[in-house]
Design brief:
By secondary structure, this protein is of the alpha+beta class. Among the domains are: about 180 residues, no CATH class; about 80 residues, Sandwich (Immunoglobulin-like), CATH 2.60.40.10. The protein is built from eight helices and 21 strands.
């Protein structure tokens, strides 16, 4: 006998499916750098100036009762925070907005905020898409200060991080204390594998409790907003309170329902909001940052850096830029030793040959060369796909001749 039944397939169109009232996704991750660095008052214009100590005074012993006391000099420098702008426009057809079961705006906005945090961290730490008006990124500043540790040789990871000549020691030699570390998620496995000579785990003693990752008391952070580039650095450590930032315009959201949207390259009109019944979500954020690096007794030339990093097994490469500072442009010009070359925040002092060698990514860099007793020189350098050499001429400041008694009487 044939048995007929109305099965599930027959009534599939009538069965109501359960729809969970949330969208499964990660919680948005914001900027790690902005959570660690020191926030300054909001910027009231595009540029904010910070005055930092540039030259320290010197004291001298006086020989004998009638010895001559010497003079000294103290000077200050300007460090500028220039606001860079992050912005994005998300066009949405009104029909899609009306038919959606969820609040599309409420779902998009947090993700745009997350993208802003990712861009901020990538630009400041690694220099990815860094605004041209910003100073060099933390990795470039640390490398120019010699604060890069190679992941090679026979030294173990513990020594590379915490031993003599390690990442922490590089920061301490420049007069700073590490108060935070950034690393890729892969570094967690390496730290868990560190053992003492008897095979005991160093980093984790309790295999059941939650591990609070820290190195020598400095908390560790593992950015998950997509900003960390492990091909450049396995771990970045430093005194994050030496870095400052200021916000010119907090994240603002505006709904546009009129106007056109053009392709930024071809300038062709892509959408006409009014004609195509669309709206657009526009998000704008502006901020600036700096690493002032004032002169200290340990680092009077300001060539140090409060950050250091552990390189990957294959270090990233940059272009060699060599500056030669002389006292003239002719054949008899002599090299100037001890001149400070400042390339967009990265500082080096020239050697006995008058040279300072930088390693920079492609781009445009402002240059300032200074030395006590000489006039400052402001210049620039363009780094492309080849090594660059550049000569700088410093001229001495001629001392003003002392006035005679007759000349003094005339002026009075």
């Amino acid at each position: 006998m044939t048995v007929n039944i109305t099965n599930r397939q027959d009534v599939e169109a009538l069965i109501r499916e359960q729809v969970v009232s949330t969208i499964f996704q990660d919680a948005p991750k914001q900027s790690v750098f902005m959570g660690l660095a020191r926030k300054l008052p909001n910027m009231t214009s595009k540029q904010t100036r910070i005055r930092v100590l540039d030259f320290l005074p010197t004291a001298y012993w006086v020989n004998g009762d009638t010895g001559m006391k010497q003079t000294t000099r103290q000077a200050w420098d300007n460090v500028y925070l220039t606001a860079g702008e992050l912005a994005v426009i998300v066009p949405i057809p009104e029909a899609v907005l009306d038919d959606a079961e969820f609040d599309i705006m409420g779902e998009i906005t947090p993700r745009v905020n997350e993208a802003i945090g990712q861009c901020v961290d990538s630009a400041i730490v690694f220099g990815v898409n860094r605004p041209t008006e910003w100073q060099n990124d933390i990795i470039t500043l640390a490398r120019q200060a010699g604060n890069n540790v190679a992941d090679s040789g026979s030294a173990d990871l513990y020594t590379k991080l915490l031993g003599e000549g390690g990442v922490f020691n590089k920061v301490e030699e420049d007069g700073y204390m590490v108060n935070g570390c950034l690393a890729s998620l892969g570094m967690r496995a390496k730290l868990r594998g560190i053992r003492s000579t008897d095979g005991t785990l160093i980093f984790k003693s309790d295999m059941q409790g939650t591990t609070q990752y820290a190195l020598d008391g400095a908390p560790m952070y593992f950015p998950t907003n997509g900003s960390y580039d492990k091909s450049v650095a396995q771990l970045v450590a430093g005194d994050f309170k030496q870095a400052v930032y200021a916000i010119r315009q907090d994240i603002t959201v505006k709904i546009l329902d009129q106007g056109v949207i053009q392709d930024p390259v071809t300038k062709e009109i892509v959408y006409n909001l009014a004609q195509q019944d669309m709206i657009a979500l526009r998000v704008v954020f502006r901020m600036g940052w700096a690493l002032p690096n004032p002169a200290t007794r340990i680092d009077e030339n300001r060539t140090g850096c409060p950050f250091a990093y552990l390189e990957p097994a294959t270090p990233y490469t940059a272009k060699t830029v060599t500056f030669t500072v002389k006292d003239g442009s002719g054949d008899d010009a002599k090299p100037i030793e001890g001149a400070r070359v400042d390339v967009n925040g990265s500082k080096l002092v020239t050697d006995a040959t008058g040279q300072a060698v930088f390693y920079l990514r492609e781009g445009y860099y402002p240059v300032k060369v200074s030395k006590k007793g000489c006039r400052n020189v402001n210049d620039s350098v363009q780094v492309t796909n080849a090594a660059v050499t550049k000569d700088i001429v410093l001229t001495s400041i001629e001392p003003q001749p002392a006035k005679t008694v007759a000349e003094t009487d005339k002026t009075e």
